[in-house]
Amino acid sequence: MNTGIIFIVIAAIMLGIFVVHNVVSTKGFIMETKPLFAFLMESDYEFLLSVRYQGQIDVDRLYGIRVRNGLIVIILMIFLFFTDLKFIYVLFAIIAGFVMFKLPYQQLKSYYSRNLYQINLLLPYYLKSLEILAQHYTIPVALSRSVNSAPEIFKPGLRTLVSRIEAGDSTVEPYMDFARQYPVRDSMRMMRLLYRLSLGNQNQKQEQLLMFSRTVSALQAKSREQKYASRLESMEKQTMLMLFVTGGGILMLMLLSMLQMMSF
User: Fold this and answer.
1) Do residues 129 and 237 both lie within one domain?
2) How confident is the model at residue 1 (pLDDT cuts 50, 70, 90)?
3) pTM (2 decimals)?
4) Among 112, 141, 120, 137, which residue's Cα sits nearest to residue 190?
5) Alpha carbons 198 and 11: distance in angstroms, whole number
6) Tell me: the pLDDT tens digits for 32-64?
7) Is the Cα torsion angle 173, 178, 182, 186 positive or negative in sign?
8) What is the mean pLDDT of residues 78-94?
9) pLDDT tens-digit readout, 91-145
10) Distances (CA, A) of 78 to 14, 53, 102, 186
11) What angle is formed at CA 191 by the lines to CA 186 and CA 195, rounded to 5 degrees?
């Protein structure tokens, strides 16, 4: 067995024993090493965590776990090449540790990108249901009543928006914060329209509702176009894959036939 692998196995066993018997505190390790690597924290990391995990989030703990995992990979890689340690191997170990450190962040970004696509498709239809409620209620009441029937992805942001309005915040900020939480096409403009609608008197309400309705209808049309374009792109990819597989299969058969002919 490779000596480096033996070192890794021994180190892993010893580390496990130390953790089990509280000789090494993983929490203490995280708290001690996290400040040393704080400069590596991405500017949008906390925001991405809030999108992925609703409610209270311990950003420091999650970031510390990333740092710990990256350092463990570096140490294990160095142990692996310990018998023939060179600069290139150390560099490779650091790169591997950095990749491990970055992996959770990239997963958060991927999750956020997938969510943005869904939000883009769902927001116009949610706004349409809100428009119907706004014809019978004030905007704060309509927002409150829309929470239960809203798509799951919007519910955390809506609850925050409604609670801030009910707490007496009559500024545009609760609306803008909702738009920032779901930063898709026209979300800022739509939330400003809602805010103006919440301030308008009854004489202006019908005119503002009509403007809001036209904007929502335009967004729904764009959403349908995007959905159709996405389906078309998916079909094109599937067609290209089928052509590639079919062409590869035909080429393989031709090569096999030529090899058989040459063998004779």
Assistant:
1) yes
2) very low
3) 0.53
4) 120
5) 63
6) 555 667 778 888 888 788 777 765 678 888 888
7) negative
8) 78
9) 888 888 899 999 999 988 888 877 777 788 888 888 888 888 888 888 889 999 9
10) 16, 34, 19, 50
11) 150
Q: Do 144 and 95 have their domain in common?
A: no
173-215 per-position pLDDT tens digit: 999 888 888 877 778 888 888 888 888 666 677 777 778 888 8
Alpha-carbon distances of 229 from 41, 119, 223, 239, 259, rounded to whole Å: 36, 16, 10, 15, 45
- For residue 14, what are its two tokens? 């010893």
CA triple 209-178-180, angle to 5 deg:
115
> Are 144 and 162 contacting, i.e. CB atoms less than 8 angstroms apart?
yes
CB atoms within 10 A of CB 8: 18
Half-sphere exposure of 237 (CA within 13 A, CB side): 6
Helices and strands counted in the chain (H then E): 10, 0
Amino acid symbol at 121: L
Asked whether residue 146 falls in the same domain as residue 185, the answer is yes
| Claim to verify: residue 146 and residue 85 sit in the same structural domain | no
Same domain? For 91 and 176 the reply is no
| b/e per residue 216-240 (b: at least 16 CB within 10 A) | beebeeebeeeeeeeeeeeeeeeee
**Residue 264 belongs to some domain of the structure:** no
Instruction: Say which residues have a Cβ less than 8 Å from residue 171's Cβ, sequence separation at least 6.
Output: none
How many other CB atoms sit within 10 Å of the CB of residue 195? Answer: 18
Average pLDDT over the chain reads 77
259, part of any domain = no
Q: To the nearest 10°, the Cα dihedral for 233, 236, 237, 238?
A: 120
